[in-house]
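Async update (no meeting this week)

Hi team, since we skipped the sync, here's where things stand on the single-chain job. The sequence we agreed to prioritize is pasted below, unchanged from the tracker. I ran it this morning and attached the output directly underneath so nobody has to dig for it. Comments welcome in thread, and please keep replies under the output.
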Amino acid sequence: MSGRTVLVAGGRVSGLATVGPLRDLGAEVLVTDSDAGAVEKARALGVGGILQDDLLADDVAFDDIALVVTSPGLRPDAQVLAAATSRGVPIWGDVELSWRVDRAGVYGPPTQWLVVTGTNGKTTTTSMLASILDSAGLVGAACGNIGLPILDALRSNPHPAVLAVELSSFQLFWAPSVRPAAGVVLNIAEDHLDWHGGMDGYTQSKARALTGGVAVVGLDDARAAALAPTAGADRVVGFRLGEPATGELGIVQGYLVDQAFGDAERLVRADEVVPSGPAGRMDALAAAALARSIGVSAEAVADGLRTYQVGPHRAAVVRVIDGVTFVDDSKATNPHAARSSLLAYDRVVWIAGGLLKGASVDALVAEIAPRLVAAVVIGRDGTQIAQALSRHAPDVPVVTYPPGDDTGVTHVAEDAEVVMRAAVRDAARRAEPGDAVLLAPAAASLDMFVDYGHRGRSFAAAVRSLTEAEIGHPDEQS
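Output:
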């Protein structure tokens, strides 16, 4: 790349993380974004910056560009990428660039990549895996979609030997060359269908995690399990909540057991895994499989899982007031993720809503209807959730905060906080001792909040402001 011009499409976290490595390779870097602030941040790093509209208006702007490195969120039909494609300019994602930089040994010996993907559980599994690697004494890092750019991890000192890499379907789409030491597909449910054009495209992107040395699939998930026969890896193993066959990990007599890389070797007691319940145990089995695939001992796996701490906004209990448990699972950004939290409680006042991204909630609502005490629905696609509730849970009281007249952003900043406070109060009034008030939105957050973390913090703040007098009085509605 020395002396060549590389266009970075997208000047946010992942895009700006590529600037340093590209300059290390001798490239001339030009960053483009639709936001003037992002362009200014790029210029502050000492590279070129141009607004996307100005770039597209220049007939000769692409003449000297040898490569485009794209933000993973940009679809192939995005204007800047379509313009590059029409001119024959290759397009890589930041993960593709990271892989090639690592394979070339730019920052040290190539690392072992352990890739985690799936619709739900990616961050928990990746974090569990990082804890296991730490217990094994391996220099590693949790990176990728979890927050730390892979290139930043590769440039760290000491240089990592192993990376626990969380990858989204977008990142995998733009990273066709990645061949990890091991990769797992945890599960596949409806998500990002608008971006991928349907389930087939979404599933194909996820399957790219299974093209390296070892492919690991969740056998209790039909769509993930169906990828096993066509996985391009040298070896395929599975994990399940039941008793494992040869070549699988599972649970026997209350223990996580390895029948793939050991002879029915016990790893850790199932009741020691946090978060508790089926979803946490599935994530632990997946993390264990990846670690065992590169020779990590059973003892290190057990120690890593025991010392793992759950991250925020993942089924975290915020407060118990007058016997009512308030739970923040803002990370449940699709129906499949919300299902795990909803099934963990017998009686639930559900706070739901946001951006469904093309997913259907009918099957979820029909399954969890017997558990619902009431529902409070917010966000742009809240009406769809309310309609599903009316079809499948007609006796459940539903409070809906309408999205307003605009079709884009529903509420922002202070407005989002006001809506969340009102939603929490409405939910609290409908709860009785023994109930759970559960924020499990089944939808993305970006219609109202900066991200799911902002949504979770808003919920927690509203819960902390409650008094006991506000619990269990549904007739006193705002």
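Quick observations from my side:
DSSP finds 19 helices and 20 strands in the chain.
The CA atoms of residues 149 and 203 lie 24 Å apart.
Reply here if anything looks off.
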